[in-house]
Amino acid sequence: MNWQSILSSSIGRKVVMAVSGLALFGFVIIHMLGNLLIFAGPAALNGYAEKLESLGEILWVARIGLMVMVVLHIWSGLCLARENRQARPLGYLGKKNTRTTFAATTMAISGLLVLAYIIFHLLHFTFRVTHPQISHLLDADGRRDVYTLVVLSFHELPIALAYFVSMILLSLHLSHGFSSALQTLGIANESSLHGYEKMGRLIAAVIFLGYSSIPTACWLGIIKASH
Amino acid sequence: MDLKLKVWRQKDSASKGKFEIYNAPNINPHMSFLEMLDVINEDLIHANQDPIAFDHDCREGICGACSLTVDGKPHGPEKGTTACQLHMRHFKHGNTITVEPWRAKAFPVIKDLIVDRSAFDRIIESGGYVSVNTGSAPEANMSPVPKHAADSAMDSAACIGCGACVAACPNASGMLFVAAKVSQLALLPQGQVEREKRVLSMVRTMDDENFGNCTNHYECEAACPKEISVGFIAKMNREYLRASLCDSGSAGNTKDAVN
Ligand code: HEM
Ligand code: FES
Fold it and tell me: pTM, whole model, 2 decimals?
């Protein structure tokens, strides 16, 4: 196997992009399911957060794995985007697209905005630098109070809105990303591609509803602070 | 019908081009698009002006020479139709029609609407053939081919190499063309000997020729006058992965064995 020639080839880089994208896709789904525990109350969410923390080394392996996937995804994406811009130095007067989608034509920009979101999000919840006053609370059982941190954060309209809008961008990105990855990996074929395209849009809609329900419910007061 | 044309004029590959407006009065709706250009060129020649250069050969939709982007669509507005088979009845009296060449770094303009598509030839030279000496045509039933493989090979072999896929792709990628050419041989028994070497080498040549990369917009399939499916791109990706991951040893050896 010649890694160098695979990684420098167009299809090889597309495969890197697809594999890392699907891995991040899996993370997004698992993370959403974990986050939705907020609807089950403080004990459920804080207990889940504590269990994750207690994984210790395993958690760090997963975090480093995610980081590697993010870096590979962005690297291959930027390589492809740069070559694609160079491939048509002079554009058409009025090119009419007939088959592509808004999501497909905005992948680079939606991807970069999601990256900006991830950086803010990590500073907010993981490194806890944006909301120091509410980031280090403990709950009644002496666990880190992730529940109150989330609920009080989303009482601020700009924060809740930023999350809401970011979830629109993320689901836009994933609505094309899902079937695109399956096509690139050669899993799709002539008869299954349309089904995968619909499936991708459906999963993206579920991801949007699942994630955006949290800031929405907190801001509307449906999820209340516990103390 | 009376039309106006907005046509890309460019003296040679080194010059900068620009659009010129031409009047096309009294166009017969039964003419093909190329016949309409012939009529305009007659007038230009009578007026001692340089006629509009455009590529054409068979004029019956099988050679792949014609290559006009008509109103922002390669080969014009009709699905599954080459520019030479596009008839003027699909336009309306008073329309202004924009005519541009294929636009891609890999296809530099030679003159006006003619582009240099020899990048496609170099991709074919790098692997789009079967180098088995077959002698005279063998009895067809001697090498059994499953019906679905034969059908699929015929579907991909419908590619006429016109380059509309590259012209239509937002990334100017040539992957539908290469996918069709890789697949038609990978599907048939005669293509097996060089199967791995072929896809690796055709993809490498494609990358070296400055085409963009497919990001799955599927504009190529929509523009293809032969309606070749993007399913073949997925097939090429499988062929490429198979050759580079599972079978790289024999891919290298095939070359030695053949030489
Ligand atoms: C409403 C939406 C979301 C909420 C409420 C949320 C909440 C959280 C919280 C509370 C944490 C920290 C967990 C802890 O302190 O132990 C976290 C971590 C994280 N989130 Fe989110 N998240 C959301 C959406 C997303 C999305 C869409 C992505 C990815 C695209 C994402 C990526 C991450 C990452 C990478 C981490 C770090 C994981 C780690 O530390 O190992 N989050 N999120
Ligand atoms: S001139 Fe031969 S396909 Fe149009």
Answer: 0.90
